[in-house]
Design goal:
By secondary structure, the protein is of the alpha/beta class. The protein is built from three helices and five strands. A three-stranded parallel beta sheet has the order 3-4-5. Strands 1-2 form a two-stranded antiparallel ribbon. It is globular, with a radius of gyration of 12 Å. The two termini are 22 Å apart.
Length: 86
C-alpha cells in the first residue's frame, strides 16, 4: 500500500519481500493518493505533501483522528498544500 500510494505522488519506490526500496527525489509531483483508512499512511502521505510540486489530495484522510485529531491543522500551519475530497 505504501509503495503504491507514494508512487502515485511520483516517488521512485519499489516493494520488496520485507519492505520497499526508495530512490531519493528532490521533490514529488503531487496528485491523489488513498490512505486506505490507515492513519499512519494518511499522515505519511501528508508529510510528503510538504515537498511536492503540485497539491496532494489524500483520500480517507479522516482516519488521522484515531491518533492525532489536530494533525491537519498542524500540517497546514507548516505550509502543506493539501486538499480534501468531499
Amino acid at each position: 500500500a505504501v509503495a503504491e500510494e507514494f508512487g502515485r505522488l511520483g516517488a521512485n519506490i519499489t516493494p520488496t519481500e520485507d519492505g520497499f526500496s526508495i530512490t531519493g527525489e528532490q521533490s514529488l509531483r503531487g496528485g491523489t493518493a488513498d490512505s486506505r483508512g490507515d492513519h499512519r499512511i494518511a499522515m505519511a502521505l501528508s508529510i510528503a505533501a510538504l515537498r511536492t510540486a503540485n497539491p496532494v489530495t489524500v483520500r480517507s484522510h479522516q482516519s488521522v483522528a484515531i491518533s492525532y485529531p489536530t494533525f491537519w491543522t498542524t500540517l497546514q500551519n507548516l505550509g502543506s498544500d493539501l486538499t480534501f475530497p468531499t
